[in-house]
Amino acid sequence: IICEDKCILLCMQEFRVIFRCCVLIVFASVYLCYTQARLAYVTAEAELKVPYADELPSREAQLTALKTTEEFDVLVVGGGATGAGCALDAVTRNLKTALVERSDFSSGTSSRSTKLIHGGVRYLQKAIMQLDYEQYMMVKEALHERANLLEIAPHLSAPLPIMLPVYKWWQLPYYWAGIKMYDLVAGIQCLKSSYVLSKTKALELFPMLKRDKLVGAIVYYDGQHNDARMNLAIALTAARHGAAIANYTEVVHLLKTKDPQTGKEKVCGAHCKDVITGEEFDVKAKCVINATGPFTDSLRKMDNQETSNICQPSAGVHIVIPGYYSPDNMGLLDPATSDGRVIFFLPWEKMTIAGTTDTPTNVTAHPIPGEDDINFILREVRNYLSPDIEVRRGDVLAAWSGIRPLVTDPNSKDTQSICRNHIVSISDSGLVTIAGGKWTTYRSMAEETLDAAIKAHGLSAEPCKTVGLMLEGAKGWTPTLYIRLVQDYGLENEVAQHLASTYGGKAYDVAKMAEVTGQRWPIVGKRLVSEFPYIESEVLYAIKEYACTAIDVLARRTRLGFLNVQAADEALPRIVQIMGKELDWSQERKTAELEAAKKFLYHEMGYRSRSEQLTRTSEINLDYQEVVRYKKRFHKFDKESKGFITTVDVQRVLDSINVHIDENALHEILNEVDLNKNGQIEIDEFLQLMSAVKKGQVSDSRLAILMKTAEETLDKRGPVTVDRSGGGV
């Protein structure tokens, strides 16, 4: 293959891949000529009876059902995507169903994904390269489930174009063949056909791209969703169909009874504990399903201490940076990072997500994003973006780590090459375990699990009905729903769009709960923080959705904690105030909620990593002229040459230029930079701040911007002349 003045020899392995793909494309093209569908379509099942169509039962009512029901057919342990999917599958088969989750729904891996609904381009590549039929079928199944998920929750999901930039001519046919195969495997459920872009067009659509040596790009389509809200929608749909579900309900140990025929012990339920009240009770069930994700082996060892581990956990870190790093509706795929991983760079909730890593880890309920992983992602992002764009460490607004429950040989060390497939196993005592898999395939995994459980336990059940079954909020949603919200309730346009895309048809219920602002516009809908469209009535509605803590609201009912940890920290006191009033919390409980949420943001959402960019030991990396300039700026506030400034000094300067800031807000601004927490900013602390800003470790420092703006305003004014003052004496 000749590329301008350079001859590039493709390795035989890559040539074989292209040849195989081209042959398949030729044979499949005849079929595609007759397919008109460009958007996925899934035939919905007949509508089922919904016992709680009008209003969800309260958490207290759900706990009562768990305690008083003589025996359930199925008890699902785990409230992630797979567990909620199993509960929905079971209850819609007319099985008496219960679900318990020791934390909140989607509190683990299911809320910490890349937010993609995808078949897995790289798995298809492996399937072709290795002629692996199992991986091919996994991709095919995932693409079917992708179509179903986009259909049953249109308010929470949508197709997303993803660009694969190409920097070598020979890679164009290679990647084009692979992506076309991806379209072909999807068949009539292909979202939109992939296409090739010239260099000029690629830069027009993604102007942030590095243009040097760029030869073109390929764009393909996958799905994107709000993962925690999707998980919650599955759980709430199960509850509406009659499942007894309860978060913050921990399994202490499994219940067992002897089989009168065989004399063997059989699992017959679980002894549970309400984490909020401490009350313990038994939940009896004919069948117990273990859907605990990374904690799969913990529950299996409750059943049998001698059982060997089947899960090898892997940590995946993601970061969130400002939305200006990516176009509003175009993602980016880096197919081969410096260490062989894949990095996605995606617009989400008007921000940009970048990730992920893939590192062996220990199982923990509170994974923490590491600084090394954050910097690795930033380095890879820099490799693909224009050198004109400075990718700063200080632009990381949030970061999180999710633990993937990979199914593998426990002796394996290389988790990156492990296939994300799943297994369903049944122990000698009848415990059904579903482990591994992907977010996208939660529904088919649940179907397979229930099929196995029904067969093993002799349950009387109907066929699976979850294909095409609309999830919570899907009914009544239309793309123009937000307009009705603006017109009928007087909500801001941005807020109305957010409510429609978060709650779907239930957005009206949230809007009805919104308080009047007292302003001309918007009429209703007080924001929790000014730069995000989350409003106070969402906190009240979150309680109806089984939110029990401030973390539930920050991280999973709204996504503020995942989008901007500082904004989440600012919204936290008001969230606690609203929840405290509604749930009649004591002052002690409110204080505990504040502390727990701050700890969550600090450790699990990357606030610690962000705040540690400016420490007491930070080096001052400024040249002489910069030091002089910043000292001059500092002394405009430190008129008495004390060597430090306080809120009083800052307020005095602001008053002189007619700028007014709330005293509490001013304390917060200074506290961000006050490293030794003595209530004042020393000259060294200020120089450390400016050095960190220069190196990109800190961005959007409110104090730095405030002082710069004040200095510029004062310099423009200049000294007041004698003539202008009226002559003087």
Automatic annotation (TrEMBL):
| Keyword Oxidoreductase on entry | yes
What's the main place this protein lives? mitochondrion
- Compartment(s): Mitochondrion
Keyword set includes Kinase: no
Q: What reaction does this catalyse?
A: a quinone + sn-glycerol 3-phosphate = dihydroxyacetone phosphate + a quinol
SMART domains per record = EFh
Q: What class of enzyme is it?
A: oxidoreductase
Ordered alphabetically, the record's keywords are: Calcium, FAD, Flavoprotein, Metal-binding, Mitochondrion, Oxidoreductase, Repeat, Transit peptide
Q: Which GO terms describe its cellular component?
A: mitochondrion
Domain EF-hand: start-end pairs: 625-660, 661-696
Metabolic or biological pathway: Polyol metabolism; glycerol degradation
An example Gene Ontology molecular-function term: calcium ion binding
EC number(s): the record gives: 1.1.5.3
Which cofactors, by name? FAD
Q: Please, one GO biological process term? A: glycerol-3-phosphate metabolic process
> What family is this protein classified in?
Belongs to the FAD-dependent glycerol-3-phosphate dehydrogenase family.
Task: Quote the function comment for this protein.
Answer: Calcium-responsive mitochondrial glycerol-3-phosphate dehydrogenase which seems to be a key component of the pancreatic beta-cell glucose-sensing device.
Which protein is depicted?
Answer: Glycerol-3-phosphate dehydrogenase, mitochondrial
What is the protein's species of origin? Answer: Lates calcarifer
